[in-house]
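User: Teach me something about this protein's shape.
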Amino acid sequence: MPDWATAVIAVETATAEAVFEPFGPPGAGRVLAYSPLLDVEGPSGQLWFLDHDAWEEAVAVEPGEGRQVRALRVWEAVVDDGAATHVDQWYLSAAADLGTAALLFDDPAVRGAIHRTLASYLPLLGGRLIAISTLMSGWSYCAGALTVFEARSEDEAKTLASDDPWRTIFPARLFRLERAIFRRVAPPPGPNTQRYGAGNPWPGGRFG
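Assistant: First, the predicted structure itself:
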């Protein structure tokens, strides 16, 4: 089984009160990395990467008043588990359903987003790309994608994020990262986190 990590995304809702109950990562799993998500296009949030042992408790977490929380699987290769470095110009385009919805990886909308990402979006980002991974709610289900890139300003980040193909099928948010919790990876020849056991053809090759 290819390596994966538990991503816990917590986002404050627009109607949230000014004071929140403290919220931390659930489960007994080791925290691999953490960063606040600073607001660019809306509410702020938090992102944790946890190891496998946290998965069962993470998916059962209750968000509490004033926030949405969801645990999803992410490609472990993008996680920098040793980084505490502060960053100023790293942005996260998070196109992810933070409820319970997901689409099969075989769904035409998902396949189309994968194709557009590989064909046009990654070339558009070019050397500004830091990391990208789809998000899984189950081995056959996609609930969105995370794309991390560098930008010289918030306006440039908004322009780059607007072309993110995943924004056409999942609720989209743009954040600025406070810490370098992602490892810079080469643009993939095909999707990173997919139906590993399926053996279906994908752009760039096969899984399984």
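Now, about its shape. The helical segments are 55-59, 108-125, 154-162. The chain has a mean pLDDT of 83. If you'd like, I can walk through any region in more detail.
User: That's plenty for now, thanks!
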